[in-house]
User: What shape does this take?
Amino acid sequence: MQKGIIGKKLGMTQIFDEKGNVIPVTVIEAGPCVVTQKKTVETDGYNAVQLGFGEVKLKYRKGAKSSRTEKFQSKPSNMTMALAGHFEKNSVAPKKYLREFRFDSIDGMNVGDLVKADTFAAGDKVDVVGTSKGKGWAGVIKRWNFGRLKESHGTGPVHRHGGSIGACSDPSRVFKGKKMSGHLGNERVTVQNLTVVKIDVENNLIAIKGAVPGPKGGVVLISDSVKA
Assistant: This one.
């Protein structure tokens, strides 16, 4: 059965295996997640489950109730009415993060089921999806690992600048996709085929070998590796 869970990156540390070898790991608080919606081929054209993660502190509108305002005051003010209705329809508590996982078969999962860290086991191969750290505007050396000019003998203030970006007469334009300076980071990144080293079911923690994208506290998605 295919597996997936939402987690929060806590940081990196190291653990030792039975032979005393040091293993660098990323610790992720994985779940518990609740199934907030099921999508099937008959209703949506594909099979998927929507998981919710993270508690939401609800706030409600204050004021005298009337027939016109009662339905608005009964909904949380820090959540759209559409989202509040989505949770109410499926009879689940509101969650801070909602993510969808496409599976070939979802017969064993129902709305309201809990998905915990023990859905994975030590030795499993997983793919981790996260949002990389934003670096702001970056030059070509930092962004694309360009070389630079020498820093002496009259090079001037251009030793970290990009060089020529195209010929002047033919083709008289810059090709699309040319590597230049620009925004770096803050994009969806997938690291594939990582290994689960340890599971702490009691504290809902998963230790994954190596680094995963994103800062501490960033939301990540863990699922079965597509290349395992």
About this structure: The helical segments are 41-44, 70-73, 81-90, 140-144.
